[in-house]
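User: ok so my PI wants both of these folded by tonight, can you help

Assistant: No problem, let's get them done. Here's the first:
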Amino acid sequence: MQKIAILGSGESGFGAAILASKKNYKVFLSDSQNISQPKIDCFKNLNIEYEENQHSFKKIAKASLIVKSPGIPDDAQIVKQLNKRQIPVISEIEFAFQHTKANIIGITGSNGKTTVAHMVYHLLKDELEDVDLAGNMGLSFAKTVAEKKAKHYVLEVSSFQLDGIQKFKPHIAIITSITPDHLDRYQNNFDLYTASKFRIAENQLNTDFLIYNADEEHLCNWLKKHPVKSTCIPISTEKELKFGTYLKDNKIIINLNKKLHIMPISALEVKGKHNTKNAMAASTVAHLLKIRKETIREKLETFHGVEHRLEHVLKINKVNYINDSKATNINATFYALDSVGSDLIWIVGGVDKGNVYEDLLPLVNEKVKAIICLGLDNKKIINAFKSCVEDIYETQSMQECVKIAYHIAQEDDTVLLSPACASFDLFDNYEDRGRQFKEAVHNL
């Protein structure tokens, strides 16, 4: 019986353990922190050996294969030790891929990947047989493979997950955007981060497809210097393309074999330039999978967006409250500020990932009347905006933050939670942060 060790008991590790058990591996799961009781109960039920609050190297090194959770960096001591022993260390998506023959649609990018994944799934779920959604949004690919036998998987894939692949190959890959993010994990080197994102296409063949954002100069230059084998399909809202998907007269045009008018963007339920581009990417996938253009149009008209991404919460005393907790980097927050009107009370802050807040200055200067910092260390935010925003508050709980917003908001203002930062200083994750925001707003 082959021995496998799994590092981390989060969604990825938990899912990998279930799949490994089902595939008759001898499983040992190790977590440097506490493991929740429901997961411990599951491990006992499946006879999965586990440890918590430590990594026992001797036990882990007995395995012939290691599955590493994406939250554990490659330069962690335990990973370095395993590399020295030349024991393969792979990601959960790689492990799951090795145990399915399904068609994979993989979506990565600094921003937009969650929305595009949900949008693609919305377009395909009733049109193709056995379609499932999984990946980086908290739905373990491995657990899904263990429990279901889908013929098509729509996967949101992070750079951390791609760092641990060997054979993982989506038939259709999408790169929504590549802007500076997570540089703390990539030696503050944007090229290393970019290379990680492009790993989504490294195993593709000429029968596969790579859909990419042709309006990003850095992304296009990288593709020119590092060509891929797959058929590249550009997407642009700024220029007409001889081959690709573009906007013309506010209509989405897919021009692959012949021009195909999909729909006017005014019919999209989700608004904003970024959502137009998301719809273009999703439409292109559906077209490649032979979904009728009338169906694509009807489905896009009924897609309402995803939780924690520019999600309208409530209107209280003619003040709008918007939850954009999923904006964990500068580029995502740029889209949020750009898509919302003036007279903003902006809630920002958390764990900084090397943000250059000055990139937001023009929008903040134009639209933001007050800033509420929500984090343990707000110096960078205050220094970046104190010259253009007079009212800046510091808070360390969501309840306090929302109460301040409520007291300073006036009629027709918008209170926007768009943190531009990770959430781990005060919250479990961005979902927890978003849920706490919505709960605090509903309790006003």
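One down. Here's the second:
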Amino acid sequence: MSYQHILVPVDDSPISYAAVEHAEEIAKAFSAQVTIMSVVAIDPFVGVDFYKVAPSITEYVFEAEKNAENRLNEIKQTLENHGLQVNTKIIREVPTAIGISTVADEINADLIVMGSHGRSGFKKFVLGSVAQEVLSESRLPVLIVKQ
């Protein structure tokens, strides 16, 4: 088995950076290309009266995109300094798992490496699990890095 293109979805959590480290080692072993991505989504529970909250949503989205872009560029620079070929991608306004699947298809990834916060029980029920959804829906191998 050989991997040519590894997709690594990240957020601002430490577990995302652990996933990047795992992806880096795999990419070095297989001389693979890496795409680091983030999903910026509007909170579906905001906006009961959209016209009253639109400015705050716009500011939130602007800040989230700026933070995601900075994070991706920082990771890209680090991996490029370590000799890897790296692309970045920001997906907007879709559920995270769908965004990850969309990018995986778009770039013809053959491996997804992502972190999992390891929630269980009630927290998992309320907050969901992006990693679980990607793992169950993906046709690709998925490496889950846990805390």
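The beta strands are 5-9, 33-40, 86-92, 111-116, 142-146. Residues 45-49 have pLDDT under 50 and may be disordered. Good luck tonight!
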